[in-house]
Write a structure and sequence with these properties.
- The chain is α/β, with parallel strands linked by helices and about 210 residues long.
- It is about 55% helix and about 15% strand.
- The protein contains eight helices and five strands.
- The chain starts with 5 loop residues before the first strand and ends with a helix.
- Bound molecules: ligand Z5A.
- The site of ligand Z5A has 27 residues, from helix 1, helix 4, helix 6 and helix 8.
Amino acid sequence: MAPGKFITIEGTEGVGKTTNMAFVQDYLQQLGVDLLVTREPGGTPLAEQLRELLLAKRDESVDPTAELLMVFAARAQHLNTVIKPALATGKWVLCDRFTDATYAYQGAGRSLPLDTIAKLEQLVQGEIRPDMTFILDIDVRLGLERAGRRGELDRFETEEIGFFERVRSMYQQRAAASPNNYRVIDAGQELEKVQRDLSAELTALFGAS
Ligand code: Z5A
């Protein structure tokens, strides 16, 4: 059986990932795709516990390398027990964030060396990479304004604006470096227009599959 496709959605705060994940899920299911929808950090009971540890605000500062290792610990569990088995049976996997987020948040945001992330990526994932990544791109201030309307902020959301500027820039650089595997969507537009753009990309990519 042909393995399924692995699709991820990424972006900075307030970009509308949750809203648009649901839209992409509907689109693919209408095409008849057998789809597993999941998220990172998370996607298994252990990885969801690691997510809680990562997002919780706390009195001690979190060492960036400790944060990086927790992200990859969660990913190893998620990838090996959920994502890989699903892909192997021909299911498609739609994942809210994956290793691009690590390059963006821990690499650019926390200034950890990118080659360290690349080594962990290789160790944990081997050759597995997403087939397609949608990057929802938004002006950082606009995104933070939207995220702020949702209520209490988590540990990442309380970072200063420069952190999110670096995160956004890393996403843009990664998309520019591998245009075949990324699509950048302007998420600063009205939702209807964002979803029209997403639909056009999805139709071009998967409409005929
Ligand atoms: N993290 C990491 O550091 N390293 C890693 O490797 C990984 C993750 C995998 C949790 O991620 C944290 O984990 C994340 C990075 C770190 N940092 N933070 N925080 P998350 O993905 O779970 O959390 P999130 O970034 O807050 O995503 P989210 O919950 O999907 O939020 P969102 O993108 O802001 O989506 P939303 O809730 O759908 O939209 C926000 C609001 O805007 C909402 O009220 C919508 O109705 C509204 N909205 C959406 N689209 C529009 C448009 N087009 N116009 C107007 N209003 C809109």
